[in-house]
């Protein structure tokens, strides 16, 4: 039966080096299995404190190549997805301006319709200003277009 290992630095230098070599070998083996089974690129850096000889796995060339690909991917992905606050605000303002224009047109049409109804009730255009007459004209143009569209739809259905 195995004894549990305390997770603290091994005080004996030889024991620490032996554990380092065994665990490094096991870590490389697991990284290789993960790479093969899942089809992913893996790079490991294993560095001992106070030493300048880092272990780069699978090889220094492959490690640096994979690291470079990862760093380039991250920049490209970040640039592709990045939306600056200013750009986002411009998009929102533009959308709201378009909505505002649509609402203004809808209100103008309703007001124009009311003016036309009022003129039909009184059977007179007396008392209307030039702006109100222009609004009624716009409404009439809008209604003519809608009637033409409907006429075209009905003619298409017959054919």
UniProtKB/TrEMBL annotation:
Its main location: nucleus. Residues 1-46 form the MADS-box domain. One of its GO terms (cellular component) is nucleus. GO terms for biological process: positive regulation of transcription by RNA polymerase II. It is found in: Nucleus. Pfam families: SRF-TF. SMART domains: MADS (SM00432). Gene3D superfamilies: Transcription factor, MADS-box (3.40.1810.10). GO terms for molecular function: cis-regulatory region sequence-specific DNA binding; DNA-binding transcription factor activity, RNA polymerase II-specific; protein dimerization activity. Keywords: Coiled coil, DNA-binding, Nucleus, Transcription, Transcription regulation. It comes from the Eukaryota. Residues 90-150 form a coiled coil. This is MADS-box domain-containing protein. It comes from Salvia splendens.
């Amino acid at each position: 039966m195995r004894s549990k290992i305390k997770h603290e630095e091994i005080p004996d230098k030889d024991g620490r080096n032996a554990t380092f070599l065994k665990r490094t070998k096991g870590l490389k083996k697991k990284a290789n299995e993960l790479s093969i089974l899942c089809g992913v690129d893996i790079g490991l850096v294993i560095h001992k404190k106070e030493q300048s000889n880092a272990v780069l796995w699978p090889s220094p060339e492959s490690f640096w190549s994979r690291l470079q690909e990862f760093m380039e991917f991250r920049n490209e992905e970040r640039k592709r997805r990045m939306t600056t606050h200013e750009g986002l605000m411009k998009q929102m303002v533009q959308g709201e301006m378009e909505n505002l224009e649509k609402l203004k047109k809808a209100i103008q049409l309703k007001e124009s319709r009311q003016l036309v109804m009022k003129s039909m009730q009184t059977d007179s255009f007396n008392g209307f200003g030039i702006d109100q007459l222009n609004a009624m004209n716009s409404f009439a143009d809008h209604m003519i277009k809608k009637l033409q569209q409907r006429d075209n739809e009905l003619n298409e259905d017959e054919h």
